[in-house]
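Action item from last meeting closed. Structure (331 res):
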């Protein structure tokens, strides 16, 4: 099996490549990634030289590059995206460009090259905030941020390619992931690395927003299940075992790193901040998948990883990162 993995130099994509090489050693994997600010060359360096691995630096917005890269691949797994809600508030344009137009480019290339499966990676954020109960795959899409709206648009275009052109599209929508190789501007690694630096931990609003956290390895096993057993035209939720308010995550990180909890500072809330996400994953569970990691145990694994891989995240905390932080947290 030859798989083209877009966005494979990012957080979930790189964990997925590692997971697939471990569980399907005969597969060949090409990573196609634009290497934006969100990636780190060190993340893919470990795959270089591995049998079946290839890396192409390329942008999914570049039609010619996508058409060239897709040739000879059986399956496409599309992780490539702009992924940070806060950045989508500061500048929505790149989100429409990559998440909507880039996905469209890939779908077109897949249709023309006769790809046999197209797994499109989406998010629970397309359902919007859930006051009670859990989101099911058939629920209405009510995204609130430019990020989640661009992801919802891509989902609908991808499904239209199945319905109209018969392209075998499968969509997964996972809840918030955490684990090794996540960019240090995202909530959990941001708080871990800032706690290690002795800096303040800026918690939005009252800190009671709830996320349905999933350890990245559990998401990867869910993606593997959806890829091998999923039905074209279907959507599969991949949710974690727990719902945790942000304040509890912040406290757990501070305590684990021996930092006083008075380092946690309430700051002005994010606009349109979704209160709660919760996924019903029974559809994928019926196909044999279940999340295996306990949240606090996996948080411990993640904290240990950031403690032992300082150089990896320090390289990402460059001048541009500091500029972004100044803009985002200026209030
Ligand atoms: P990430 O930001 O860590 O990685 C994204 C990768 O895509 C980076 O390597 C980047 O260089 C690449 N990329 C960005 N624009 C590109 C372009 N135009 N062309 C080619 N490559 C490009 O993101 P992540 O957290 O690993 O998320 C991966 C996917 O999973 C995304 O589609 C995201 O919407 C989805 N998702 C993420 C989460 C989460 O909690 N992180 C939850 C649900 C769904
Ligand atoms: P984030 O990682 O941006 O994911 P999401 O896509 O769910 O918004 O943030 C997770 C939660 O943490 C979200 O409720 C916003 C909150 N948060 C903070 O309180 N402070 C921060 O500095 C960041 C980055 C996030």
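Sequence:
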């Amino acid at each position: 099996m030859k798989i083209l993995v877009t966005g494979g130099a990012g957080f979930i994509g790189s964990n997925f490549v590692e997971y697939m090489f471990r569980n399907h050693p005969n597969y060949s994997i090409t990573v196609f990634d634009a290497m934006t600010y969100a990636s780190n060359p060190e993340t893919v360096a470990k795959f270089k030289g591995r049998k079946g691995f290839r890396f192409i630096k390329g942008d999914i917005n570049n039609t010619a590059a996508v058409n060239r890269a897709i040739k000879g691949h059986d399956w496409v797994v599309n992780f490539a995206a702009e992924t940070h809600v806060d950045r989508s508030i500061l500048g929505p344009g790149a989100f429409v460009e990559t998440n909507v137009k880039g996905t469209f480019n890939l779908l077109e290339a897949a249709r023309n090259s006769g790809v046999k499966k197209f797994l499109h990676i989406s998010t629970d954020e397309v359902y919007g905030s859930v006051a009670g109960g859990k989101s099911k795959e058939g629920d209405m899409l009510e995204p609130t941020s430019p990020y989640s709206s661009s992801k919802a648009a891509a989902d609908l275009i991808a499904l239209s390619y199945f319905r109209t052109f018969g392209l075998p599209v499968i969509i997964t929508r996972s809840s918030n992931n955490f684990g090794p190789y996540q960019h240090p501007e995202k909530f959990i690694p941001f708080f871990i690395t800032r706690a290690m630096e002795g800096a303040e931990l800026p918690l939005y609003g009252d800190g009671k927003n709830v996320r349905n956290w999933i350890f990245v390895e559990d998401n990867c096993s869910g993606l593997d299940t959806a890829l091998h057993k999923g039905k074209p035209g279907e959507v599969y939720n991949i949710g974690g075992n727990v719902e945790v308010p942000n304040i509890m995550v912040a406290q757990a990180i501070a305590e684990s790193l021996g930092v006083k909890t008075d380092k946690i500072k309430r700051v002005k809330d994010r606009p349109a901040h979704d209160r709660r996400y919760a996924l019903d994953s029974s559809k994928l569970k019926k196909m044999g998948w279940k999340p295996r990691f306990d949240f606090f145990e996996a948080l411990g694994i993640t904290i240990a990883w950031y403690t032992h891989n300082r150089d990896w995240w320090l390289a990402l905390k460059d001048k541009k990162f500091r500029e972004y932080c100044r803009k985002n947290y200026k209030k």
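Note appended to the action item: The chain has two domains: 2-177+216-238, 179-211+242-276+293-322.
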